[in-house]
Amino acid sequence: MEQLIALIKSSVVFGTVIMYGCIGETLTEKSGNLNLGVPGIMYLGGISSLIGVFFYERAVETPNAILCLLIALISGFGAAALGGLLYSFLTITLRANQNVTGLTLTIFGSGIANFFGGSLNKLAGGVGQISVSATSAAFRTQIPFLSEWGPIGRMLFSYGFMVYLAIAIAVIMHWYLMRTRGGLNLRAVGENPATADAMGINVTRKKYLATCIGAGISGLGGVYYVMDYIKGTWANDGSIEKLGWLAVALVIFTTWKSVNAIWGAYLFGVLYWMYFYIPNLTRSSQELFKCLPYIVTILVLIISSTRKKKEQQAPAHLGLSYFREDR
Amino acid sequence: MEKASAIQLRAITKTFGSVVANRDVNLDIRYGEILSLLGENGSGKTTLMNMIAGIYYPDSGQIFVNGEEVAIRSPKDALNLKIGMIHQHFKLVDVFTAAENVALGLDEKGKFDIRTVAQKVREICQKYGFDIDPDQKVYNMTVSQKQTLEIIKVLYRGADILILDEPTAVLTLVEAGKLFRVLRNMRADGKAIVIITHKLNEVLDISDRVSILRHGEYIGTVETRDATELSLTEMMVGKKVSLNIDRPRAEKIEKKLSVEHLTVTDRNGIKLLDDVNFEAFGGEILGIAGISGCGQKQLLEAIAGLQLADEGSSIMFFPEDGGEKQLLGKTPRQIREFGVALSFVPEDRLGMGLVGSMGMAENMMLKDYDRGHSFFTERKRPRQLAEQIKAELEVVTPGIQTPVRRLSGGNVQKVLVGREIAAHPTVLMTAYAVRGLDINTSYTIYHLLNEQKMKGVAVIFVGEDLDVLLELSDRILVLCGGKITGIVDGRSATKEQVGMMMTGQNPVLGGNA
Lengths: 327, 513
What we know:
The complex is a heterodimer of chains A (327) and B (513).
Chain A: H1 2-30, H2 38-59, H3 65-93, H4 98-124, H5 133-140, H6 150-156, H7 161-179, H8 181-191, H9 193-198, H10 203-229, H11 239-253, H12 260-277, H13 283-290, H14 292-307
Chain B: E1 5-16, E2 19-30, E3 33-38, H1 45-52, E4 60-65, E5 68-70, H2 75-80, E6 83-86, H3 98-103, H4 114-128, H5 143-156, E7 161-165, H6 173-188, E8 192-197, H7 200-206, E9 209-214, E10 217-223, H8 229-237, E11 254-265, E12 271-282, E13 284-289, H9 296-304, E14 314-317, E15 325-326, H10 332-338, E16 340-344, H11 360-367, H12 380-392, H13 409-422, E17 427-431, H14 439-454, E18 458-462, H15 466-472, E19 475-480, E20 483-489, H16 495-502
Helix pairs in contact in B: 8-16, 11-12, 12-13, 13-14
């Protein structure tokens, strides 16, 4: 029982990181932009929030918890959205290849983040010395009483608020995409931009907005990772990148429906952490277990492509740039 | 009784570069009336209507809608003026339902609910007799249903003036009948309707008036009840122009190809070629006339082995050394080795046959990449060939290594045709070989084709200019809607005769073929 609760808890925490990455990317891909820069964007979100609160906590004696949260969220979201803006400018305005741009953004984001992470370490007085304890504590504040309510409380309510925020965003995004005029128009842009254009929808604007907001949401995954998952520290070990790629895989796994990310992300978490709770694994067999999420994604791809149900496929114009034909 | 005027065009002129698409065109569109806009390919019908729909903007001239002069700068402007155009290529999102497609881009006030849209769609369907389920996904729809949906889309937006660009081109006969019923319902409802078409029987069947364009110029408007197929054809094709193209007679005329019962059916079950029978002879240019999209492409591709034909079709090839070979079922490469060359010059010149980013020499190599036996490519021969073609056909290019996509369209065509001829074919097929070429280059190509013919090659020439076909071809095969309307002697046929046959009637046999 204890083991099961521990597995679920670590899966939820792990899953939340990639859920942000996934739902942000879902929004982006619905506009027809395949942004493979998710890992880089999560890096940008993580490092920016850390920089923001690091200086805030250094400047004041007793940091205000609410301010800490706001600074972390806004700087994380903002930096990630800027990454999305860069991607949008290159792929939408300059019509650069989306795959190349996305991969470059990943390299760019991790480079920037690790550079500033190193600088922060230096400022803080040595590797592993960064601590934004006040902010991290605010992020990890649990729901009082409920979180202590037996095993159920520990399984469902013993997390920081961002776990619930992720679920809320996933639900709201699904509602937006499927039930609103704006969502319908956005999906049309990703499916068939020429049609959307002919119907008077501003394709460029839709793509820019979806990509930047999507990147911002993905960036929150980085914020959550830094503030909650590794408790307000920084490590130049590339684990954000790993999680970023899982988020991209998760988008495919969820068949581009953000509500599926809620259980999909936790499932990925369970699959990923399973090795920890299976006795007698060697180091190498552990690594095999860590592949499970990817294997499941491949299976989903195989199944969904053989069933040929159009609703479960990627947006038809995903990865292609659109420009009005010169008549 | 004069119907109320919906749109008046006065002296509209539109040019694309140096090409004049419309010159001083006047047109009247009235409410409660169906107007046919008739003309050959490239006569500027679609361009003219696109200016009303806000896709193009005229260079000069005036447009009046309901008596007021307007400037229509975008499709949205057109819709605000209650003008809707249904294009040949549907603009629909496949994974959306009919209702969702209708709702796209609408800025209605109030809460968005797809069910309200669906309800309104149902009402429109009821009013005009459409048969569409608002909840059906577009990818499950037939072509005719998709077209219906396009019409509903513009009606939903309140259009009173509807323009349909060749609406029956993609429909079966039954579906076309259904469409016409709906159009009559809309006419009865007081809508102004324009249909762009080149099918005379449809014009006579549905319209109240016919306006005719030829080479971008407005020829005139007649009341349909005063018109006959002959009078319309004359207005459409005009008088014959003499071009003075050589037409030597070859000494040796031998059967090279025999096509029997060739039928090609597409995925939607529409017959693109329907029981086509003909023979092609060496020492002869067989011209193929027809409105574009009538099966010319499928015909050539079937012979070249690029298009699957239905059961029962047969294409026999008669080689030099006697015997006969069935071409169907052979790979394009085998067919090419028999000596059947296809220099197809499609609308997209670089799409088939040439690689845009390669130079002339490398493009020469594409055809015989499998000839050499060493590990390294043989570069000398292709280079010589490229130089030869460049000199003989006067290809204007900085050098044979310059990527062909940087060449002008005419020069690209010369490279393509030159390469095919260099392969010493027994059957040479070309489609639209002179499209976009200037007069001199066109004559160079005619000359080349004649040269091949005199050598005993069977030349199949798909063309669009009737004057050229009539002066170059020994025989002319006329296609209409995938069927052969007839094969006439190029020396004795008249332009009116071929023009009529292109629209589906056979004046020789009488009646509709």
